[in-house]
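C-alpha cells please, single chain.
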Amino acid sequence: MSTNTKSVCLLAHIVLKKTRNYGNDILGMKMAKKISLKKLDSLWAEIIRNAAGRCEHCGKTQYLNAHHIFSRSKYVTRWDVDNGICLCSGCHTLSSDFSAHKTPVEFVEWLYQYKGEDFINELRRKSHKTYKPDRDKIFKELTRIQKGGIDG
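Here you go.
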C-alpha cells in the first residue's frame, strides 16, 4: 500500500470514528447514536423509585433515591432492576445511624435480612460476570419494565 493510500485510509478511519462519536451524517448515511449511559441510569432509577414508591428501609415516601446493591461499575448488573433498592436520602447517604454509604456494615446486614442470603449471593454471582452491554437492548428492556412494572 502506498503512503498516500495509507494516509487516505487513516483519514477515513478518523472521520468515521468522529462521525460515530457525534452522530453526524457522512456520505448520506446516518450513523446510529448510542443511547447514553445517563439516559439508561435515569430510566433505571425511575423504575426502582416507582416500583417501591417508598424507602424500603424506613417507609418514607419523599426524597427517594435508587441505590445500586452492587456497584454501577459492574455493567452486567448496572441496569438490572434486581440490583436496585429504593431508599430515602437519609437511608441512602445522609444518616449517620443507618445509611447505605455512611454505615455500610449495618446496611449490608439489613439487606441480607430484607432480601435474603440466596438473593444476594445470586446477585453477587451475576455481578462477577463480564460482558459488553448492548445499550439498545437494555433501553428496550427497561422501557418494557417501565410500562408494565417490574413483574409484568
